[in-house]
């Protein structure tokens, strides 16, 4: 006797419409959604974004060099803010808005300029004595607040 819960198995031909339907559903989920039209940034906003990326980079470089903190937390936080406000990333800002038009060249320049500034301040001890960490942090925070206030 066949149990009541048993259903006869269908052959491959019986499963084809189900498999095809699932495949089409899966493909439709992979299709990119249309992005909302991005408004062009005005000159003052572009300058603000470049300054913010520079400030975040400087704080992270100081922390990496003088505090052995490789986290890059300021750049990550800025990245989150830029993504939510403008659908941009730090790398996109460096590629499109920095004079080098290349994030790698921009990062190299920022690092070289910061290391020269750190050396001129007397290295990590001299920079700490001169209040560089607080100055860098305050500048970064002020720029983040300015970006947050933008529409």
In short:
By secondary structure, this protein is mainly alpha-helical. The chain has helices at 12-30, 43-66, 73-86, 90-96, 103-120, 123-129, 132-149. The chain has one domain (43-149).
Protein described:
With 151 residues, this protein is an all-alpha fold. The chain has one domain. It contains seven helices and no strands. α2 runs antiparallel to α3, α3 runs parallel beside α7 and α4 packs across α5. The radius of gyration is 26 Å and the shape is elongated. About 3% of the residues have low confidence.
Layout of helices and strands:
Elements lengths: L11 H19 L12 H24 L6 H14 L3 H7 L6 H18 L2 H7 L2 H18 L2
Helix pairs in contact: 2-3, 2-5, 2-7, 3-7, 4-5
Features:
about 150 residues, mainly alpha, about 0% strand, elongated
**Helix percentage:** over 70%
Low-confidence stretches: 33-37
How far apart are the first and last residues' alpha carbons, in Å? 72 Å
Order of secondary-structure elements: HHHHHHH
Biggest sheet features: none
How confident is the prediction overall: mean pLDDT? 85
Q: How many discrete structural domains?
A: 1
Number of distinct beta strands = 0
Assembly type: single chain
Instruction: Work out the strand percent.
Output: under 5%
Helical region count? Answer: 7
Task: Tell me the Rg in angstroms.
Answer: 26 Å
Give me the secondary-structure category: mainly alpha
Question: Which of globular, elongated, flat, extended, rod-shaped describes the shape?
Answer: elongated
């Amino acid at each position: 006797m066949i149990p009541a819960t048993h259903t006869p198995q269908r052959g491959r031909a019986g499963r084809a419409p189900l498999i095809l339907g699932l495949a089409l559903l899966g493909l439709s989920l992979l299709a990119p959604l249309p992005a909302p039209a991005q408004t062009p940034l005005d000159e003052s906003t572009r300058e603000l974004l470049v300054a913010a990326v520079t400030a975040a980079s400087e704080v992270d470089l100081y922390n990496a060099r003088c505090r052995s903190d490789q986290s890059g937390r300021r750049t990550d936080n800025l990245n989150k803010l830029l993504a939510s406000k403008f659908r941009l990333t730090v790398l996109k800002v460096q590629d499109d808005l920095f004079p080098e038009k290349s994030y790698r060249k921009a990062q190299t320049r920022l690092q070289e300029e910061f290391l020269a500034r750190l050396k001129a301040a007397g290295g990590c001890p001299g920079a700490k004595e001169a209040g560089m960490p607080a100055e860098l942090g305050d500048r970064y925070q002020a720029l983040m607040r300015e970006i947050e206030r933008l529409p």
